């Protein structure tokens, strides 16, 4: 696979340089995937606006979606980043592995969310009716559903950018998912 070089601050547009500066202040670094978005003069800003937009879902719920979708799309960069973020949100290693596999053994509501996220991604939005019914029966709303689908799309874009560009992972690398161990 052709690995893209990660652009530096000097390689990107003035607008993206400002975003790099803000990311450095907020995170202490510019993640390689974000820098890769900056090959485009507009994609990084658009991505960050969308990724940080208001949603009806909690930070933990967003991470469940990110982990399930990134696993289906086989994106090691996003799996590594969201494993780290999942831990920051209080999830254990075992919970993270379960979300990646599309379920939760300890939280029925997050179980339905993980199953839905995995199903939407695997079936390209042609969601299984039983999975959808279980999602609603767990207390989620139609508004939550639209937010889940939006987040699946958002994460899929990042997965595809990384899977195409193969930029270096700058987070602790997530362990491979071995279903028989969870």
Count of helical regions: 9
Note the overall shape: globular
Class of the largest domain in CATH?
Answer: Mainly Alpha
The computed structural class is: mainly alpha
**Helix fraction?**
55-70%
List the SSEs and their pairings.
Blueprint (H helix, E strand, L loop, with lengths): L13 H14 L4 H6 L5 H9 L7 H14 L3 H13 L4 H9 L6 H15 L6 H9 L4 H24 L17
Brief digest:
The protein has 182 residues and is mainly alpha-helical.
Provide an overview of this structure.
With 182 residues, this protein is mainly alpha-helical. The chain folds into 2 domains: 9-51, no CATH class; 59-181, AhpD-like (Up-down Bundle), CATH 1.20.1290. 62% of the residues lie in helices and 0% in strands. The protein contains 9 helices and no strands. The protein has helices spanning 14-27, 32-37, 43-51, 59-72, 76-88, 93-101, 108-122, 129-137, 142-165. Helix 4 runs parallel beside helix 7, helix 4 crosses helix 9 and helix 7 (108-122) packs across helix 9. The two termini are 31 Å apart.
Which tags fit this structure?
globular, AhpD-like, 9 helices, 182 residues, 2 domains, mainly alpha
């Amino acid at each position: 696979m052709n690995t893209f070089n990660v652009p530096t601050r000097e390689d990107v547009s003035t607008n993206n340089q400002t975003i790099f500066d803000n990311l450095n202040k907020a995170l202490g670094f510019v993640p390689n995937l974000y820098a890769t978005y900056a090959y485009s003069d507009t994609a990084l800003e658009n991505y960050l606006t969308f990724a940080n937009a208001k949603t009806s879902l909690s930070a933990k719920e967003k991470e469940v979606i990110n982990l399930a979708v990134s696993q289906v799309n086989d994106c090691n960069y996003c799996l590594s980043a969201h494993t780290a973020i999942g831990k920051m949100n209080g999830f254990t290693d075992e919970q993270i592995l379960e979300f990646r596999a599309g379920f939760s053994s300890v939280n029925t509501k997050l179980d339905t969310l993980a199953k839905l996220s995995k199903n939407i991604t695997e079936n390209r939005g042609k969601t299984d009716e039983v999975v959808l019914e279980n999602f609603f029966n767990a207390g989620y709303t139609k508004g939550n559903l639209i937010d889940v689908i939006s987040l699946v799309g958002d994460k899929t874009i990042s997965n595809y950018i990384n899977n195409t560009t193969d930029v270096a992972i700058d987070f602790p690398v997530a362990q491979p998912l071995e279903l028989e161990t969870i």
